[in-house]
Amino acid sequence: MKSQEVQRWSVSGWVMIAVLLIAGIGLGYYGYWCVRGEHIWHGVACGLLSLLWSVLCFGFFTLQPNVRAVLILFGRYTGTVSEGGFHWANPLLIKKKVSVRARNLNGQKTKVNDQRGNPIEIALVMVWRVTDTAKAVFDVDDFIDYVMVQSEAALRHLAMSYPYDTFEGDTLSLRGSVDEISVSLQKEVQERVDRAGVLVEEARISHLAYAPEIAGAMLQRQQAEAIVAARSRIVDGAVGMVEMALTKLEEHKTVELDEERKASMVSNLLVVLCSQEHAQPIVNTGSLYS
């Protein structure tokens, strides 16, 4: 059965101080009269009233800003006092204070396999706060521990759903898609901790690295993939530039090229554009066929 926070009105503590002060003065005069008159039954009544007055004095409590008091009477939830200040409520009520201020959770490093099966180290930092004190107190055993465990579980699931890194433009990765991954992480953590009446305001990855046992090998692989991706883009660009050059020459009729000369020109341009080093120009004063 899910709980729901209910706002509870409480008596001002300052008003009750005045009431109890007046009642205490009256009890003092009543007790003095009982002692002077030696009225036994009145003395018993005065003692019971004094005991009741003493019990009522235990009903005072204070609340700081952004702190709420969950009121419990004999195991039954009766409401939550949300307004800060000096209050008085039934002394028999258990007043369990719950802070609704923003809290930081700096998670520990966790070793998990990413989508490709590579062991990685990952940790998160999260900003959260309680929004429903009834759920936080009654629906989970310890809402702080609950948030910590569920946030770690959400982080593990997220890490196994994406690769550590990728050079494909449309594929999300833990390292390359920071904003998208943060949104997904916040959404998943929120779904898991909603039962505890908690709102996740922000969740981000604070640490991300390959596990030490494969860090060196994965760095070499990462460098190789980066080189391959870069060379692929260079070749794509070079082919486009060669096509543009041939098209411009044909449009402006700058020079007439047969198929063999076109092939030679394409070869030379690709060498110049795709070479890792600067090409050394050679001036040919003869014929291509000589």
Please outline the helices and strands:
Blueprint: E1 11-12, H1 13-37, H2 40-56, E2 60-63, E3 67-73, E4 76-81, E5 85-88, E6 94-99, E7 103-106, E8 110-113, E9 119-130, H3 133-139, H4 143-161, H5 178-193, E10 198-210, H6 212-252, H7 259-274
Antiparallel strand pairs: 1-5, 2-5, 3-4, 3-6, 7-9, 8-9, 9-10
Helix pairs in contact: 1-2, 4-5, 6-7
Number of helices: 7
Distance between the termini: 94 Å
**Count of discrete domains:** 3
Return Rg in Å.
38 Å
Helix content: 40-55%
Which stretches are low in confidence, meaning pLDDT under 50 for 5 or more residues running?
Answer: none
Remind me, CATH topology of the largest domain? Answer: Tetrahydropterin Synthase, Chain A
Compact overview of the structure:
The chain is an alpha+beta fold and 290 residues long. Helix content is 49%, strand content 21%.
Would you kindly provide a written description of the structure presented here, covering whatever features stand out?
The protein is α+β, with helices and mostly antiparallel strands and 290 residues long. It folds into three domains: 11-98, no CATH class; 103-210, Tetrahydropterin Synthase, Chain A (2-Layer Sandwich); 219-274, no CATH class. Helices cover 49% and strands 21% of the residues. The chain is built from seven helices and ten strands. It has helices spanning 13-37, 40-56, 133-139, 143-161, 178-193, 212-252, 259-274; strands at residues 11-12, 60-63, 67-73, 76-81, 85-88, 94-99, 103-106, 110-113, 119-130, 198-210. Strands 7, 8, 9 and 10 form a four-stranded antiparallel beta sheet that branches. It has a three-stranded antiparallel beta sheet with strand order 1-5-2. A hairpin with a 2-residue loop joins strand 3 (67-73) and strand 4. The chain is rod-shaped. The protein starts with 10 loop residues before the first strand and ends in a 16-residue tail after the last helix.
